[in-house]
Amino acid sequence: MTVLLREAIGDRLRHARTTKRRTLRDISRAAKVSLGYLSEVERGQKEASSELLASICEALDLPLGELLHNVAADVSALDKVDTAAVEVDGSADQRAAERGDGRATEKSAGTFEGGRIVAGTTGNDLADLRLSPSLRTTIKAPKPKAVLAA
């Protein structure tokens, strides 16, 4: 799974804001950025400029270097999990081939589904558990069925 930098940055910014119990409105005013744009940055939908990141970090009393360090740790941890998952899945496929049953595991394509604990990661909460972007789907209301009256 490829991690988009804007998503990792947004996750970290939201985590920092909610940990300090600050609202989007409060941070948007302090950082002099629109509330809607800040929300999009936190959701990983917009790529924030370095100036904007510096302003948001200042409003959060969070050093920009610390934000970037934490984001780098998150991305690195996810890369290690993805590599380990591919290696484990590849060995499962190899064992299946050796048995001769021809079954391949679903994860052999290197997909990353669901949340996983990142082994050996210490420190902040966000680096410990990650969910796949495929789980960020919108739940749609069921379509109404036509009722025929007799």
UniProtKB/TrEMBL annotation:
Compositional bias annotation for Basic and acidic residues: 95-106
Molecular function via GO: DNA binding
Positions of the HTH cro/C1-type domain: 13-67
Region of interest called Disordered, as start-end residue ranges on this chain: 89-112
Pfam families referenced in this protein's UniProt entry, alphabetically: HTH_31
PROSITE patterns, A to Z: HTH_CROC1
Highest taxon listed in the record's lineage: Bacteria
Entry-linked SMART domains: HTH_XRE
InterPro entries from the UniProt entry: Cro/C1-type_HTH, Lambda_DNA-bd_dom_sf
CDD domains per UniProt: HTH_XRE
The protein's name: Putative transcriptional regulator
UniProt source species: Saccharomonospora marina XMU15
